[in-house]
Specification:
This protein is mostly helical.
């Protein structure tokens, strides 16, 4: 037997990794905590608690962060409307999408789209993607002395 099959903590971490990998792959699909929990044969409550303990955020928050990251990429391209981007990343409510986008990015999707087009002019896509990743507002260190 290997360590993963004998240590319950390692088994649970492997299970949580499968959930996180599924979110990364299927972010645009209709996913919720119940469906994610069913996929690994645990209760939604247990999955939420364990996921938060392991990754510092709930499965729903992680899912929405993935969706917003992808939305940022689509908005930077500039060829889709905010509504089209909302549905393309798996959100079913424009209001929820816009609210969550504003919380994570610090501006509305339409403002981001306009600003990103200006800011990214002349920057290679691979660099723009890394520089423009969302940082939750609560994670940004306060600027002192400015």
């Amino acid at each position: 037997m290997d360590a993963v099959s004998t240590d319950p903590r390692l088994r649970e971490l492997a299970l949580l990794r499968r959930v996180r990998d599924r979110i990364d792959r299927e972010y645009a699909q209709p996913l919720d905590v119940e469906a994610l929990a069913r996929g690994v044969h645990v209760s939604a409550g247990h999955l939420s608690r364990a996921f938060r303990a392991a990754y510092g955020e709930s499965p729903y928050s992680y899912l929405m962060t993935r969706r917003i990251e992808r939305a940022m990429t689509l908005l930077r391209r500039g060829d889709l409307s905010v509504t089209d981007v909302c549905f393309a990343v798996g959100c079913s409510s424009l209001g929820t999408f816009s609210t969550r986008f504003s919380e994570l990015v610090g501006m509305s999707p339409s403002t981001y789209r306009r600003k990103a087009a200006e800011d990214a002019r002349g920057i290679p896509h691979c660099v723009a993607k890394q520089v423009m990743r969302p940082i939750r507002n609560r994670e940004v260190a306060p600027v002192r002395g400015v």
